[in-house]
Design brief:
Elements lengths: L4 H20 L3 E2 L12 H10 L2 E4 L4 E4 L2 H39 L1 H4 L3 E5 L3 H10 L4 E6 L9 H13 L3 E7 L6 H11 L4 E5 L6 E4 L3 E5 L8 E5 L2 H17 L1 E2 L5 H20 L4 H8 L3 H15 L4 H11 L23
Parallel strand pairs: 5-6, 6-7
Antiparallel strand pairs: 1-3, 2-3, 4-10, 5-8, 7-11, 8-9, 9-10
Helix pairs in contact: 1-2, 6-7, 9-10, 10-11, 11-12
InterPro entries: TrmB-like
Organism: Nocardioides currus
Protein name: LuxR family transcriptional regulator
Amino acid sequence: MEYGPDERSVFETAASELYEELVAQAGMPVGDPRIEHDGELLEPFSLLKQIGLVVLDKSAGRWLPVDPSIVQSRVVTPLGQQGAELIAESAHWAKAFNGLSNAWRRSPEALRGPFAELRGEAIAPYITSVVADASEELLTAQPQTGRNIGQLPKAIEREVGALRRGVQMRTLYQHSARRQVATNKYVAAVTAEGAQVRTLDEFFNRLIVVDRRIAIVPGQGGPGESVALAVREPSLVSYLVDIFERSWERARPFTNRDTPLVRAIEAEQRAMTIRMLIGGHADPVGAKRLGVSPRTYAGYISELKKEFEVESRFQLGYEMGRRGVTGRDVPPAADRGNVPREGESA
């Protein structure tokens, strides 16, 4: 017999009280009217009998209690087995639903809504598809950290194709991207076709906007899982474009040949490092914000120690505080008025 919540409720109340009475009185006479037909204890007694907690001693004419530890496994073990089977069955159902969800995400219907989630290998083909459909403008923001350098050749092919169709393209990187050989090759390829590329000292998230109608942003996934969100909702796309435009206005043209510009960028990275130190951020956080490796970030801090003629970070913090350094003041080399923007004359 299977036992469920109803039987357990009787067992925990009336049946337990009856069992304790049987233990205290060394059993119960067979003819006790309380356990006969329509007796007040018939239901709890029947449950104790079914479970095996009472047995009939025919010679004495009494119902005797049985040690619960002997009987327990008869009830609990089957329930545990049923629980394990239910858990396994639920896992199979979840797996089946996941398969259907993946099929839905790959379907055209899922990608036509205001929001669509993309995972793993589905991301790159989708980006290639929407960029191939671009007819007017392509805006991209690529933080240096987390960029897959192995995908740059495909990105060059995809975006050069869009530029040759007459699509206008603007791309933002962090300043640290200027040190990457592969990124420099990418920038050379797209700017030769008319793209504009700038860099910024601040950290930002990855963003792609196509014709101001579709935006692709990072999604939330588990460890090691690639997730992207395609956004078609007009108000949200407009908001993301506005964020891009504000960042674009503060950014610097991507070039390593303009000496005043290079000095200005170095000053901006210095200021950002100071702000990270003053803010008490750990080195990995500061390195991510600047888009550099922890080793490069440690080198920036070492340069600051030399500049302020100190030996430790504590001394560095004290000296910066004493001099009123905040990382938000603009050194002469970083004066934006001395460095022309793209399309401006010096």
